[in-house]
Write a structure and sequence with these properties.
α1 packs antiparallel against α5 and α5 crosses α17. The chain is built from 22 helices and 6 strands. It is globular and about 80 Å long. With 521 residues, the chain is mainly alpha-helical. The chain folds into 3 domains: 269 residues, no CATH class; 78 residues, no CATH class; 62 residues, no CATH class. 44% of the residues are buried. It starts with 12 loop residues before the first helix and ends with a strand. β3, α22 and β4 form a beta-alpha-beta unit. The chain has a two-stranded antiparallel ribbon with strand order 1-2.
């Protein structure tokens, strides 16, 4: 069952490098054009800033507003604090806040690594299918959630790249040669995951170990000393958690249970009112245009469980989806690990649409061959919609027109060419779809609405500028919850005001967007 990589076949490294370079350009472009969002970005930034102000062993344990931060491990926060330190060397005023670009740079950069790594995983599973390797990377490059959450100072984009590196190392292992460095790399990636969102390591590791165990059923292989190198790689991550337990005792378990697995499994938080519909909606919003072939890819993998690709693609998708959908707390970015196995499933059907070898047996072939026409029709419909926007029949704005127009052009002509009898024309069609999506994403990241929450909550920066000059005590926010972004820009913690004290307040300043009150005790 195991396929060894032939020396006559090499992965398309230049293509993967090109796609990764484009991913870097997209995620870094206009990275600082919007303020940090609530709650994650502003919280991550504050923790990183306080880590930057520490020295020695104190840097091992994160804090927020001088209190222990037990929500998440500080893996990414350390890296952002390093970026803050670099930026401060070039600033005249060391007390000024680091820029949004500085805070987001490393999370955005690390999120791009999933693009080439996804292609390399596909190559390990299908070593003779160069086009599937390329299509998998292209899919990861053009998925809206990958770009959007990857640009934010959040853990999810970096975490997805860590999962990709784990799966790449384990899928590269071969029982015919030494695998100790593969397992060491897998262990190091697990260590990094332990320093990001620690509980996620459980489904991510299980999703890769299951196909390995299925693939190599021999007890001799399972007892191979190479597995020890996995535990060697785990040492840094485990060491930090042991130090955290030594420092905070039972409080250190909060990030595993109170704010980790226990919270998302059993508590329905704000924004989770739709339950399981939240990740389902996110999939149907963010999976285009490749969502059209995803059910076919899942069916292919199921019928090819006797191949490496079938076992890996099917099991990783089912395990990751099965670990996310039942969660009691559902937020849109919780589905983020879903996109890597999604791309592994979609890559081969897209590759077949380009190559179309007549002697290949593929399930639901007739349906698959109609996908380009369906995509072309969707592209044409979007083109008409964009023209309605352009000529003010729909009032969405010029930026929306640019995004929709170029995506629709790429899908319309790309889908049409992908149905052509000639292979060269079909290749042009595929890259037309990718190119149109890339241009649309470039307009998207240059817009003022790529962080949708900014359209839902008022911009805190004007208020922060005023209250930063006021005394630290006696300042509250009238919301029922704190705004970490307000805390960040004001450089002080602004707590929410109790309902019983709101009737003791008199207005000092009012604007169209916000009001400033003075409240008596």
């Amino acid at each position: 069952m195991t396929e060894s990589i032939s020396q006559n076949y090499k992965p398309p490294i230049l293509w993967l490098f090109l796609l990764w370079t484009i991913a870097c350009a997209i995620v870094l472009m206009s990275l600082g054009n919007l303020p940090l969002r609530d709650f994650d970005e502003a919280t991550v930034a504050r923790v990183a800033l306080e880590l930057n102000q520490k020295s020695g062993l104190d840097r091992l344990l994160p804090s927020i507003w001088d209190k222990p931060y037990l929500n998440k491990p500080p893996g990414l926060h350390w890296i952002i604090s390093f970026a803050i330190g670099i930026s401060q060397r070039f600033q005249n005023n060391i007390d000024s806040l680091p820029s949004e670009f500085c805070i987001r740079f490393f999370p955005a950069l690390f999120s791009t690594f999933v693009v080439p790594l996804g292609g390399l995983i596909q190559w390990n599973l299908r070593p003779k299918d160069r086009m599937a390797c390329i299509t998998t990377s292209a899919i990861l490059l053009t998925l809206l959630p990958i770009i959007r959450y990857g640009r934010m100072a959040m853990l999810d984009g970096t975490q997805l790249s860590a999962i990709a590196f784990l799966w790449f190392c384990l899928s590269s292992s071969n029982h015919n040669r030494s695998t100790k460095f593969n397992f060491l790399g897998a262990g190091l990636s697990c260590s990094f995951m332990l320093l990001l969102k620690a509980p996620v390591i459980i489904p991510a590791l299980f999703a890769a170990l299951l196909p390995l165990i299925w693939e190599y059923k021999s007890k001799k292989y399972l007892n191979n000393l190479s597995w020890l190198w996995l535990f060697y790689g785990l040492i840094p991550g485990l060491a930090w958690h042991l130090w955290n337990i030594f420092s905070y005792g039972s409080g250190a378990l909060w990030m595993w249970w109170g704010d980790g697995a226990g919270r998302v499994l059993f508590e329905k938080g704000s924004g989770s009112e739709l339950g399981v519909l939240v990740p389902i909606i996110e999939i149907f919003e963010g999976g285009w245009p490749w969502l059209l072939v995803w059910p076919i890819g899942l069916l292919w993998a199921f019928f090819r469980l006797n191949s490496r690709w079938g076992v890996w693609a099917f099991s990783t998708q089912i395990i990751i989806a099965g670990s996310i959908l039942p969660l009691k707390m559902q937020l849109p970015w919780y589905i983020h690990p879903f996109w890597l196995p999604f791309a592994l499933l979609c890559g081969p059907p897209i590759s077949w649409l380009i190559n179309r070898r007549d002697n290949d047996y593929v399930p639901v072939r007739n349906i698959l061959t109609k996908i380009p026409n369906i995509l072309s029709f969707i592209g044409f419909s979007l083109l008409l919609f964009s023209l309605l926007v352009k000529f003010n029949f729909l009032n969405l704005g010029e930026n929306y027109f640019n995004i929709i127009f170029f995506i629709s052009i790429g899908w319309f002509f790309g889908g049409y060419l992908l149905s052509n009898p000639r292979k060269k024309i079909r290749k042009i069609g595929f890259f037309g779809i990718v190119f149109g999506s890339i241009i649309g994403l470039l307009f998207f990241v240059n817009s003022k609405f790529w962080i949708w929450e900014i359209n839902e909550n008022w911009d805190v920066r004007p208020v922060a500028e005023i209250i930063s000059k006021l005394p630290d005590e006696g300042i509250f926010i009238g919301n029922s919850f704190e705004r970490p972004s307000l805390n960040w820009y004001a450089q002080k913690q602004i707590k929410s005001l109790d309902d019983k004290n709101r009737n003791k307040c008199i207005a000092i300043k009012k604007t169209n967007d916000w009001d400033l009150y003075k409240c008596n005790d």
